[in-house]
């Protein structure tokens, strides 16, 4: 049915511009130019009613979006070493998982460095008979900053190290764990579990799994976990909580490096009770902004969540 409103072409466009200007600016930018090209024109007459209906529906959608409650975050403690939001923490984690780099043969090391510290880069040539194999390929573009025992490199420092010929990562081992800081090699670059989490929390210096509780506070229950919180085992391993994988809180999403299956940071999902049974303790960084109560807001996109590695039987991170 034809509209009762008819205009000459010039008058119609002038009218349509005035009407569009009265609606939400976003609708004006998106709907107005697009829909203008779709109106029927018969002998100089255009259907204005279709345009007005489209603007009305778009305005309703906009009002619905604007009426959704916004989550107000409470800032972290001013005494904390840094201030960070859940979105910032997870964005940093994504940066480490997606970082692209191209190593070469000179970035491979399987043996002692200049100080006599054993280094094993997690390249594809690393194939231990009873451990986790390496993954990065020399001469090709690789994604993800490799694990390095005691590493705290940000992406820029990592790239500089690779360009200067340093080893691309250094895997953990029982011997390194026994030696602790004495086994950290200055001839390799990368990041370990606590270095990775420290970067995600914007900490100015690395805080290992023993030091992290000093700048965090315990949660009374794992059900209180919110994106940006930690699951920590002192002297062993730490995870960055990213969200709930299941509505019943039976599985969680988390970022870690050093855990199975690869020596690099990744988003994973695992049963919460299995992780708690291993000894993980839920804690929250003092400088983490957080909602006043359970918000139900997901920080991770649906696309990221769908790519999380499934770990049905988790273990405690590095050997």
Secondary structure elements and pairings:
Elements: H1 9-21, H2 25-36, E1 41-42, E2 45-46, H3 48-67, E3 73-74, H4 86-98, E4 100-101, E5 110-112, E6 118-120, E7 142-143, H5 155-163, E8 167-168, H6 174-179, E9 188-189, H7 193-200, E10 216-218, E11 230-233, E12 237-244, E13 251-256, E14 266-271, H8 272-277, E15 281-285, E16 290-291, H9 302-306, E17 309-310
Parallel strand pairs: 8-9, 14-17
Antiparallel strand pairs: 1-2, 3-16, 4-7, 5-6, 10-15, 11-12, 11-15, 12-13, 13-14
Rg of Cα set: 27 Å
Proportion of helical residues = 25-40%
The helix count comes to 9
- Based on secondary structure, the structural category is alpha+beta
Shape: globular
- Tally of domains: 2
Oligomeric state, counting identical vs distinct chains = single chain
Describe the structure in brief.
This protein has 319 residues and is α+β, with helices and mostly antiparallel strands. The chain contains nine helices and 17 strands.
Keywords for this entry:
319 residues; alpha+beta; 2 domains; 7-stranded mixed beta sheet; two-stranded antiparallel ribbon; 9 helices; disordered N terminus
What can you see in these coordinates?
- This protein has 319 residues and is an alpha+beta fold.
- The protein folds into two domains: 9-67, no CATH class; 72-319, no CATH class.
- Helices cover 29% and strands 18% of the residues.
- The protein is built from nine helices and 17 strands.
- It has helices at residues 9-21, 25-36, 48-67, 86-98, 155-163, 174-179, 193-200, 272-277, 302-306, and strands at 41-42, 45-46, 73-74, 100-101, 110-112, 118-120, 142-143, 167-168, 188-189, 216-218, 230-233, 237-244, 251-256, 266-271, 281-285, 290-291, 309-310.
- The chain has a seven-stranded mixed sheet.
- Strand 1 and strand 2 form a beta hairpin.
- Helix 1 runs parallel beside helix 3 (48-67), helix 2 packs antiparallel against helix 3 (48-67) and helix 4 (86-98) packs across helix 7.
- Residues 1-7, 30-46, 49-55 and 60-68 have low confidence and may be disordered.
């Amino acid at each position: 049915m034809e509209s009762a409103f008819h205009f000459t072409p010039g008058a119609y466009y002038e009218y349509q511009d005035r009407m569009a200007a009265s609606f939400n600016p976003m609708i004006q930018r998106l709907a107005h130019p697009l829909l203008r090209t779709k109106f029927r024109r018969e002998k100089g007459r255009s259907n204005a009613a279709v345009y007005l209906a489209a603007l009305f529906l778009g305005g309703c959608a906009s009002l619905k979006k604007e009426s959704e409650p916004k989550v107000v975050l409470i800032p972290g403690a001013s005494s904390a070493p840094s201030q960070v939001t859940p979105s910032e923490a997870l964005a940093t984690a994504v940066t480490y998982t997606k970082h692209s780099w191209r190593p070469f043969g000179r970035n491979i090391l399987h043996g002692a460095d200049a100080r006599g510290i054993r280094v094993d880069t997690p390249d594809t040539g690393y194939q231990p008979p009873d451990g986790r194999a390496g993954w990065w390929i020399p001469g090709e573009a690789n994604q993800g900053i490799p694990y390095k025992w005691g590493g705290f490199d940000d992406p820029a420092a990592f790239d500089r190290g690779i360009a200067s010929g340093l080893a691309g990562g250094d895997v953990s081992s029982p011997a390194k764990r026994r030696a602790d800081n004495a086994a950290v090699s200055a001839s390799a670059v990368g990041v370990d579990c606590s270095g990775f989490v420290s970067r995600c929390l914007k900490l100015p210096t690395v805080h290992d799994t023993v030091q992290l509780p000093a700048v965090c506070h315990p949660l009374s229950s794992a059900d209180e976990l919110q994106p940006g919180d930690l699951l920590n085992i002192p002297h062993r391993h730490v995870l960055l909580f990213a969200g709930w994988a299941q509505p019943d809180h039976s599985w969680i999403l988390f970022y870690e490096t050093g855990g199975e299956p690869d020596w690099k940071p990744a988003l994973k999902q695992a049963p919460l009770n299995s992780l708690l049974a291993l000894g993980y303790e839920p804690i929250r960084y003092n400088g983490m902004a957080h909602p006043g109560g359970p918000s139900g807001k997901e920080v991770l996109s649906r696309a990221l969540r769908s790519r999380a590695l499934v770990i049905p039987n988790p273990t405690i991170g590095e050997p």
